[in-house]
Design brief:
Elements lengths: L11 E6 L3 E7 L7 E6 L4 E5 L29 H14 L4 E4 L2 E4 L11 H7 L11 H15 L3 E5 L7 H15 L3 H22 E2 L7 E2 L2 E8 L5 E9 L17 H8 L18 H4 L11 H14 L4 H18 L4 E2 L9 E2 L5 H10 L3 H7 L2 E5 L4 E5 L2 H31 L7 E7 L11 H31 L13 H8 L4 H10 L5 H11 L6 E2 L7 E5 L4 E5 L3 H6 L4 H8 L4 H8 L3 H4 L2
Parallel strand pairs: 7-16
Antiparallel strand pairs: 1-2, 2-3, 3-4, 5-6, 8-9, 10-11, 10-16, 12-13, 14-15, 17-18, 18-19
């Protein structure tokens, strides 16, 4: 039956709206080829010109289906139907969760809800998905039950745009497993350790952005290990794509990683004595966003939680002290004032005053030679075939070198902390099965988008492709295999966008090629993109820019500014600076750079 016969007098439809995205309307005359008369909810009558059947407006669901807890129960499943159903459930019924088949859709309420206590956990224990209201615990129970019943490893993927509530959802899922998978004193300690990893990872890996006060600036995959009796016996964590640039730069209204603000607020505590800490506004690496506070968050209390978590996970007092000294050293490194030099022209040399307070404090805390550090923050070694010589760096180049060093120290320390957490969570027993929880960056688009957003959105493209394959392709193939009568759903395939990024002479290939060029530059690279990538439908050059490029992602079209792509992709630190850190009397710092291979750093 043609859908045209449904557009009779009284039929209810959705119309696009600039303010509310979609608005309701009623058909006032039977559809006549090319013309559809509708009356909007405001009473205004509109005549729509329909060139072909695909331009007919989406039909609305009957009232009896509005607010269904599973979107697949709707007669019409399209964008306005989904959005309207979610809005009714959220605004009218205070329900943040809705199913869409095997997928749980969650709306972030941006407030604490009393729906996650132990009573709720045990209410969902043993229930099938759909027996009770949609909930993150229902998905967690389904994963646990399938692991028990089928004796197969399971994974939960938590995805969504930045600020959607992924980290909190992953945390509640882990809490569910820790509660139902625990038994006895020994396991209780294991569960406590699994949960104690969250405050540490949030302190060193989360930050305030314009979209989210507690945004994860790294991706993580946690495997929770179970015994033959399906009790938790251990866990392990893998991390991805730490946003290192945040250590040295924050956009307006944003913050660096929480740990720095926690330490500044807790500077008078005995644990931080002698670190020469001050108010966060006094450090360049924490004052650029000019908005250091987060509503309803006490950084002093959060520091105490972080400190207690370190102790619970078995970090020694000396290791904790070394961690704080290195963190404080990074803050002081950011305050090292690098000025234009004299004699060779301002652009060709730079210098640091001998009495520079930032340099003195940083060298004391990191326990490195001041004169050596002062020299190699402003100079670099050039090695040719037959000789090597020292060349001064200009002010801008020296500042970039300083920032690269700060990022490298923080990244290595981050990896080491993750490695130590994994050691604390590792089990000596035999692992029977595991449940994995993937909490990765959400899709991002800001006023200014750079290398970090590009990597995040590329990762989300791959995740979306996996989702499409699992939910649409494989599911529909299963229906056909079983002989179920089914109209194939035409879903968005994002392979062309992935080809633009991954293929030969695609964005990443051209970036790597430009990084190998002795005189490669961001400007030269973006010009090559304009030439080589114009054949892709998902690539565009902005009309009013010579330094940006547009990528049409599955979620949105994003404009990326090329500035900084090459230096961030190279991600190099001068060997002379690393040699100074290797000779540090701070045992942990020296270990971070003496260790060989990613495993020793916990990467």
């Amino acid at each position: 039956m043609s859908t045209k016969v449904l557009f009779t007098k009284g039929a209810r439809v959705w119309l696009k709206d600039a303010d509310t995205v979609w608005k309701g309307a009623v058909v006032v005359k039977d559809y006549n080829e090319g013309v559809l008369d509708v009356e909007e909810e405001s009473g205004q009558t509109t005549q729509l010109t329909i060139k072909n059947d695909s331009e007919l407006p989406p039909l609305r669901n009957p009232d009896i289906l509005i607010g269904e807890n599973d979107l697949t129960s709707l007669s019409y499943l399209h964008e306005p139907a989904v959005l309207h159903n979610l809005r009714v459930r959220f605004e009218d019924r205070n329900q943040i969760y809705t199913y869409c088949g095997i997928v749980l859709v969650a709306i972030n309420p941006y407030q604490e809800l009393n729906i996650y206590d132990n009573d709720t956990i045990f209410a969902y224990r043993g229930q099938n998905m759909g027996d009770l209201d949609p909930h993150i615990y229902a998905v967690s129970e389904e994963a646990f039950k399938l692991m028990e019943r089928d004796s197969k490893d399971q994974s939960i993927i938590v995805s969504g745009e930045s600020g959607a509530g992924k980290t909190v959802s992953a945390k509640y899922s882990m809490r569910y497993f820790a509660t139902i998978g625990g038994s006895g004193d020994t396991e209780t300690q294991v569960e406590r350790r699994v949960l104690a990893s969250s405050p540490i990872m949030e302190a060193i890996g989360n930050a305030k952005t314009t979209r989210n006060d507690n945004s994860s600036r790294f991706g993580k995959y946690i495997e929770i290990d179970f015994s033959k009796n399906f009790q938790i016996i251990g866990a392990s964590m893998r991390t991805y794509l730490l946003e290192k640039s945040r250590v040295v730069f924050q956009a307006a209204e944003e913050r660096n990683y929480h740990i720095f603000y926690q330490m500044c607020c807790a500077r008078d505590l005995p644990e931080l004595e002698g670190l020469e800490l001050d108010h966060q506004d006094e450090f360049f690496y924490t004052n650029q966003g000019q908005n250091p506070d987060i509503d309803n968050v006490d950084d002093l209390k959060e520091f105490k939680k972080t400190h207690e978590s370190f102790k619970l996970l078995g970090f020694s007092d000396s290791d904790i002290s070394y961690i704080y000294r290195i963190m404080a050293g990074i803050l002081h490194l950011g305050n090292v004032k690098i000025m234009p030099g004299g004699g060779r022209g301002d652009n060709e040399s730079s210098l640091i005053q001998a009495e520079d307070v930032g340099l003195v404090n940083m060298c004391n805390l990191l326990e490195v030679e001041l004169e050596h550090m002062k020299k190699w923050l402003c100079h670099r070694k050039i090695v040719s075939r037959n000789e090597s010589f020292t060349k001064p760096m200009g002010q801008v180049q020296a500042q970039q070198s300083r920032d690269a060093l700060a990022k490298c120290i923080y990244s290595n320390l981050f990896d080491w902390i993750v490695f130590q957490i994994n050691k604390a969570l590792r089990t000596s027993g035999k692992v029977n099965k595991f449940i994995g929880v993937l909490d990765i960056y959400g899709f991002e688009t800001f006023e200014m988008n750079s290398f970090e957003q590009f990597c995040i959105n590329y990762a989300n493209e791959k995740l979306q492709q996996q989702f499409n394959c699992h939910v649409f392709k494989l599911e529909q193939e299963e229906y056909i295999k079983e002989g179920i009568e089914w109209k194939m759903i035409d879903f968005y395939d994002n392979q062309p966008c992935i080809d633009l990024i991954e293929s030969k002479l695609g964005i990443l290939d051209l970036l790597d090629e430009e990084c190998r060029m002795p005189k490669g530059s961001d400007k030269s690279w973006v010009e090559k993109l304009y030439d080589k990538c114009k054949k892709y439908d998902h690539f565009n050059k902005p009309r009013l820019s010579q330094t940006a490029f547009l990528v049409k992602h599955f979620a949105d079209k994003v404009e990326y500014e090329c500035d900084g792509f090459l230096i961030k992709n190279r991600d190099t630190v001068m060997e002379e600076q690393v040699a100074i850190l290797k000779a540090s009397k701070n045992n942990l710092l020296a270990d971070l750079f003496l260790s060989e291979g990613p495993e020793s750093l916990g990467a």
